[in-house]
Amino acid sequence: MVLSGKLYAYNHSGEVYPYRNFIVPNGDGKTLLLLKPRGFCAGVVRAIDIVRIALEAFGPPIYVRKEIVHNRFVVEELQAKGAIFVDSVDEVPNGERVIYSAHGVSPEVREASETRKLRVIDATCPLVTKVHVEAVKFAKEGYSLILIGHRDHDEVIGTLGEAPLVTQVVGSPEQVESLTLPDPDRVAYLTQTTLSLDETKDIIAALRRKFPNIQGPHAQDICYATENRQEAVKQVASEADLLLVVGSDNSSNSNRLVEVARNLGTSSHLIDSFRNIRAEWLEDVKTIALTAGASAPECLVEEVVKFLATKGFDNVNEVEVMPENVRFGLPPEIVEAIASAPAGVTAE
Ligand code: SF4
How far apart are CA 290 and CA 319, in angstroms? Predict the structure, then answer.
């Protein structure tokens, strides 16, 4: 909404929160709105720090199960420093160090690591661990579990593994209709952390209609970073002719940002880097909004800003929709490694 020539947003408490540094486009030049918060979340910063510090403190080889975060650039950078990415712990030689990705693992993977006497460092995001804990708790209490999410996503595979015999995965309200459960009065739902807030609301509503006594988590599972980035897109999408999201195509939260913009009628594309921007996307476009998924590094955003400036989008305004200051602590193995390492090994 436009108030007295400035843009404003509402924060989660419903207070008016003024966009910072925003200049309303004067209609002459082309404008780039740089959304904030964007890019790395606390779970991704932690996971990347863990791999970087492990490489510095212990030296290669350090094995990482699956992509540490879903971003090609990040994975290639860590590979260049000596990290070895594997699909399964079976590929890790006995006794070596392995890091679990931010998306988490199932108990089956933890057992396989134990059998192979691997030295595990767990980079699972604490907000994903929270969902695992909820799954175990509900299953122990005799509930059937409905996990809302994308069946093939690493996070969902890990959470599902906590209680595979009592968990079913659903990805749409239509799928809710075909669910059958042993006791429709003893059912609980959980969600993947990186879903679309709006679509998840629809699925939960369908679940409540079908199972009126369904239980849910105490606090919603969609994480703060997913929510904040989607909220920023919602607030700004109508001001832009085009919304670009920096992120890899296997990044769930990045894909959801594109969907949020498109659902609001704004043309939107996911780009791994400025190289993916097509000339035809910029035709007749006066204002571009730019954001980045939770696993996309800021250096890629900066490259996009520079590229778009060469195309005339040099009126750059950072639009801060809400502040974000979340940090997560490092796991004990890494804290100890920092304490006993020579000077120079630090968390960023
Ligand atoms: S997107 Fe959310 S759940 Fe995923 S790593 Fe980041 S903070 Fe954790």
Answer: 10
pLDDT for 116 beyond 90: yes
Contacts of residue 126, defined as CB under 8 A and 6 or more positions apart, other chains included, come to: 43, 328
Residue 347 — very low, low, confident or very high, per pLDDT cuts 50/70/90?
Answer: low
Each residue of 218-257: pLDDT tens digit? 989 999 999 999 999 999 999 999 999 999 999 999 999 9
Mean pLDDT of 55-84: 96
Strand partners, 271: 246
Confidence of residue 28 (pLDDT cuts 50, 70, 90): low
Asked if the structure places residue 89 within a domain, the reply is yes
Dump strand ranges (E) for the chain.
2-3, 6-10, 16-18, 31-36, 62-65, 83-86, 97-100, 119-122, 144-148, 167-170, 187-191, 242-246, 267-271, 287-292, 315-320
Our answer on whether the CB atom of 89 is closer than 6 Å to any ligand 1 atom is: no
128 lines ligand 1 (CB under 6 A): yes
For the chain, first and last CA: distance in Å?
37
pLDDT band at 143 (very low <50, low <70, confident <90, very high): very high
The reply to whether 35 and 72 lie within a common domain is no
Tokens representing 42?
A: 């606390």
Quick check: is 157 in a domain? yes
Same domain, yes or no, for 244 and 276?
Answer: yes
pLDDT number for residue 207: 98
Check if 155 is active-site: yes
Residue 3 inside a domain? The answer is no
Using the mean position of ligand 1's atoms as its centre, give its distance from the Cα of residue 12 in Å: 19
- The residue segments making up the domain with residue 103 are 43-125+329-340
What is the arithmetic mean of pLDDT over 105-118? 98
What's the pTM value of the predicted model, to 2 decimals? 0.90
The domain total for the chain is 3
Q: Ligand 1: which of 66, 127, 130, 231 to mutate, most ligand atoms within 8 Å of CB?
A: 127
Catalytic residue among 155, 162, 227, 333: 155
